[in-house]
Amino acid sequence: EAGVTQFPSHSVIEKGQTVTLRCDPISGHDNLYWYRRVMGKEIKFLLHFVKESKQDESGMPNNRFLAERTGGTYSTLKVQPAELEDSGVYFCASSTMPGTEAFFGQGTRLTVV
Amino acid sequence: QQQVKQSPQSLIVQKGGIPIINCAYENTAFDYFPWYQQFPGKGPALLIAIRPDVSEKKEGRFTISFNKSAKQFSLHIMDSQPGDSATYFCAAPPYGNNDMRFGAGTRLTVKP
Fold it and tell me: Considering its fold, how many domains does chain A have in total?
């Protein structure tokens, strides 16, 4: 069974550009989460999808971040325009149900220069 | 937003030692306390988890101790090995939810 996969693994972009991160959850997992870790800090919750619906987006930093999960399968997280403070590792995770084990992808390391 | 405080930030032990990592939480709604292990270039992977109806859980060399009244839980690694060198995160999600609140992580190094 394939795990959670994220693309790209690394991205370096200039301030003001747009970047789109993709997450493919484990097949059949209705719950999909986005997290971000800034260097040396805790892993912070960004967003929770249940199928295609946003269950909780209280962690999204601002309106430069847009997450979608059309069709309830893969998800994208777009940052437009990117700022220096957006740099970090973005993790996606999926689970069958809330409160059960969440499986993480390997992360996308975003560097904004 | 941080509701889970983890310490220490880094830890170095000799092979065979027993590193202990501590976490304290604030929100009493938390009822599931997982520990995640992360190797460089990989995502966090669930290591062991406990629910507050027990005070201790063991899985192999890994033990979680849970103190509900103090709102603290800790990870103990018995007979630590160099292969245990990784970053460890404690986490606590609100009930019925999985928007987990993570600790800041502990970078563990086990020297041969």
Answer: 1
Domain count, chain B: 1
Q: Which of A4, A33, A41 sits opposite B98 (nearest CB)?
A: A33
pLDDT digits (tens, 9 = 90+) for A22-50: 999 999 999 999 999 998 788 898 999 99
Q: In whole angstroms, what is the distance from residue A43 CA to residue A97 CA?
A: 20
Minimal CA separation from B33 to chain A, in Å: 10
CATH of the domain at B74: 2.60.40.10
- Kindly give, in sequence order, each residue whose CB lies less than 8 Å from that of residue A29, ignoring residues fewer than 6 positions away: A94, A95, A96, A103
Nearest C-alpha of chain B: how many angstroms from A105? 5
CA dist., res. B31 & res. B51, Å (int): 6
Higher-pLDDT residue of B100 and A95 is A95
